[in-house]
Amino acid sequence: MSDLLTQYQIIPDRVPQHVAIIMDGNGRWAKQKGHLRIFGHRQGVKAVRAAIESAAEIGVKYLTLYAFSTENWTRPEQEVNALMELLVDTIESELPTLMKNKIKLATIGDLTKLPKKCQTQLDKTKAKTAENDGLTLVLALSYSGRWDIIEAVKRIGIEVKEGKLAPEDINDGILDKALNTSCFPNPDLLVRTSGEQRISNFLLWEIAYSELYFTPVLWPDFAKDDFYKAIVDYQGRERRFGKTSEQIA
Ligand code: IPE
Ligand code: IPE
Ligand code: MG
Asked: What pTM did the predictor assign?
């Protein structure tokens, strides 16, 4: 019932086109319950499902989920392996749901760092969902904002070296196109769960004008209603992009 109440408050023609989420708090959620961290990650998959469903239901076009950062490789090997296993299993088991709901899978990040099994599963699922025209689900895997910017700068550097691009012609658009995120609009709304108020090397370039929303809810507890609450909060904001309030009106 409360789900419906919050969903009812959403203004349909002001739904953010792109929502990005830093899914944080799995470990603390498990610890609070006296379980191992991986139990929290498993529970987190349910919250992923709920977020995808909520986004699709209200007409969000792009949902980017921070699933594994460049820095997360420094976690204990056992946790990293368990996360990779969970990733393969989840993508495999969710394929029918993706197809049924016309969801297209995309990724950002250095996939070459992932175990072969993960890469194969991701490639297969991306190919199978390529023609789906509903929500685009972007998984950030072995991703960090700085990594992407550095890689983009290297690509631009090669263009310059080969004489295909003049340094003075480098602008926002050129960098946009060289990033992993080139196919997606910038996020309108960035959500982080677990109470931490930091970006942790997520979409550094792309969030220049995103609205930020922090909630203390730990990721495994993040339900549809919490997603809708974030949307309602977003809709109450005035995005000025440097202009004055009067110009916006
Ligand atoms: C987020 O939860 C999941 C990943 C980073 C893979 P955490 O594992 O960071 O959980 P906390 O922050 O330790 O509670
Ligand atoms: C950010 O969470 C990365 C993901 C959610 C995948 P972390 O838990 O790794 O972030 P920090 O280290 O606390 O900033
Ligand atoms: Mg964390």
From this structure: 0.97
